[in-house]
């Protein structure tokens, strides 16, 4: 993606994992409403901002789970919304503190693959939110975050039907750890998420 003046980012994942907050942080202002205890929007929404001839488009999407099952209607709405649009990057968002990958996670990944083709994953970044957690069982932050990200990446590789050797060399399969509350400190007043700031609202690695 050299010498481009437009970047379009698609953000997908389950409801409540922090998709909208991540989008607000990327844009640097509240372009998507984030309200506790209320359901997400029912349709995709694109926020666009331009700076010095460069345009950033970020697409927020409905949660991919409804009543404990994959929300295939949401996937169809997203697919229709993306007609005549070129997606440069997929941000697949989940929570760092979810601890494990379950069958529903695997079903979501397969459903995304079936709807958009496995090539969508070759444009993807894994975003793990709520990165301020204290790891369980005495694990260090780095060990826990690595195990969690490896579990999700393995599920993506299998669900996307990508060979391991191809998956390992794909440069976009990276993990971003995100914390939107930068004042989260541990007992000795250090940031719990020990990584550098991407911008003033988002922490990543």
Automatic annotation (TrEMBL):
InterPro entries: G_AIG1, GIMA/IAN/Toc, P-loop_NTPase
Statement: the UniProt record of this protein carries the keyword GTP-binding: yes
Gene3D superfamilies cross-referenced by the UniProt entry: P-loop containing nucleotide triphosphate hydrolases
Record-annotated AIG1-type G domain positions: 4-205
Transmembrane segments: none
Molecular function per GO: GTP binding
Pfam families hit by this protein: AIG1
Keywords (A to Z) from UniProt: GTP-binding, Nucleotide-binding
PANTHER family given in the database record: GTPASE, IMAP FAMILY MEMBER-RELATED, TRANSLOCASE OF CHLOROPLAST 33, CHLOROPLASTIC
Protein name per its UniProtKB record: AIG1-type G domain-containing protein
Source organism (scientific name): Gossypium lobatum
């Amino acid at each position: 993606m050299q010498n481009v003046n437009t970047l379009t980012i698609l953000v997908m994942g389950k409801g409540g994992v922090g998709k909208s907050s991540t989008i607000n942080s990327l844009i640097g202002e509240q372009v998507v409403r984030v309200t506790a205890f209320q359901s997400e929007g029912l349709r995709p929404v694109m926020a666009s901002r331009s700076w010095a001839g460069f345009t950033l488009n970020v697409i927020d999407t409905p949660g991919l789970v409804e009543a404990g099952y994959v929300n295939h209607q949401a996937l169809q709405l997203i697919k229709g919304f993306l007609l005549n649009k070129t997606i440069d990057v997929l941000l697949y968002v989940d929570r760092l503190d979810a601890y494990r990958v379950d069958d529903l996670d695997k079903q979501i990944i397969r459903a995304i693959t079936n709807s958009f083709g496995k090539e969508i994953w070759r444009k993807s970044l894994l975003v793990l939110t709520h990165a301020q957690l204290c790891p369980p069982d005495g694990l260090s932050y780095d060990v826990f975050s690595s195990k969690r990200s490896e579990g999700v990446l393995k599920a993506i590789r299998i669900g996307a039907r990508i060979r391991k050797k191809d998956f390992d060399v794909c440069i976009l399969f990276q993990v971003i750890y995100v914390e939107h509350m930068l004042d989260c400190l541990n007992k000795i007043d250090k940031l719990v998420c020990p990584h550098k700031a991407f911008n003033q609202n988002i922490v990543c690695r």
